[in-house]
Fold Pyridoxal-dependent decarboxylase.
Amino acid sequence: MTPDEFRRHGRQVVDWIADYLESLESRPVRSQVRPGEVRAALPSAPPERGEPYEQVLADLDRVLLPGITHWQHPSFFAYFPANASGPAILGDLLSSGLGVQGMLWATSPACTELETVVVDWLARLLDLPAALRTDSAGGGVIQDTASSASLVALLAAGSRAGGELARRTVYTSSQTHSSLEKACRIAGIAPGNLRVVDVDPRTLALDPEHLRSLVSADVAQGAVPTLVCATIGTTGTTAIDPVRRIGEICREHGGWLHVDAAYAGVSAVCPELRWINDGVADYADSYVTNPHKWLLTNFDCSVLWLRDRRPMIEALSILPEYLRNAATLSGQVIDYRDWQIPLGRRFRALKLWSVIRWYGAEGLREHIRGHIRLADEFAGLVAADEEFVLWEHHPFGLVCFRPRWPGLPIQDANEATIALLERLNDSGELYLSHTKDTEHVLLRLAVGAPSTGREHVHAAWRVIRDTYAAMA
Ligand code: PLP
């Protein structure tokens, strides 16, 4: 493709995206295709001859769009959001256009140095402790996902803990994201050495007293408590683990405190939400949050900060001959390849930089506050309805709730709630997901798409209410 052809098709593609974003509301939120339908509509063999780009775009409309679930739809309330925004899309496009691979400072100095600036900016925006910024012994780095970030934290924690791998223990709760269990498998933590700490049944937050007793028993047996994961905003219900009390226990035993704030962490752009990070400044060894969830930055963009980068670099740095270069050997530059699992890396900082510059701190705060207001409004509708039970804790954009299903035993009520969820999602009018407290299935409505407004939240409640009424 020549630059002139690129210019022409590039304009078509940008127009296509703008039209798509404008058309979102007319589309069913969740794709309605059956398994295999998209694949069957595509040729099984690649073309022998190149095709005009228009044909690619035509197939995008004809074949792929029906198989797309519209994450940016204003009535997408499932999971946590995966925000996209104009500046992030443009930043990603620029990154593709530059086509750099920033594994080393030397392979594109600006790719590394912009990343350093942007992760430090974000730390300031969230009022994270100065110890996590790059000028200190610590620093931040953009990862693809929080899953990778937690794995990096675990490897760094292992490097700091030392000793035999078989004696290392890790502590999570039943509400911790499954990526921690996966990280343990990858890092070679013995399956029996992953401890699942109890949660308070009312709040679903990790019980620090149970943590303390597990850690003490392990230490008495000669185990090495290596990492404790505290979550700020659990995946199920956005529970907030008591970071400070967990941190105190880590401090007593030398364990690494990893804070997973993948979804909720970005809300600390708002000063009134900074209470969520209580204990982070004093105790966190690492902290992860995902601008790709709720901060207007297209997937993928997850930021991991560490208080001390050395154990991570000890765990991950290998310098083969072909990567040796004067800048690396001078010790004056950061090579982010040592801060992540893969070698190669995209220029993700560009999209986060675009987002922060376009919205400014003010715009980012308004984005978060707007969703929290809508979530509060939705929670009010649920609370006012006697046939529904509201999960009281909803400090962010997620509201959990369930129908009472009067007269039904819990098991049947849970099945009825799942049937309601499926009927709602099949309708194409909205998309919700679910979780479970200690016994009940809860519906999850996460307000988070940039285009969601009051009308969408009220419409969602009407559909939920009417569908429930038809089933009850
Ligand atoms: N941690 C928490 C609390 C999450 O809610 C999620 C995903 O929803 C993750 C980690 C995993 O995020 P990622 O997809 O970036 O790995």
In short: The first strand starts at residue 139 and ends at 143.
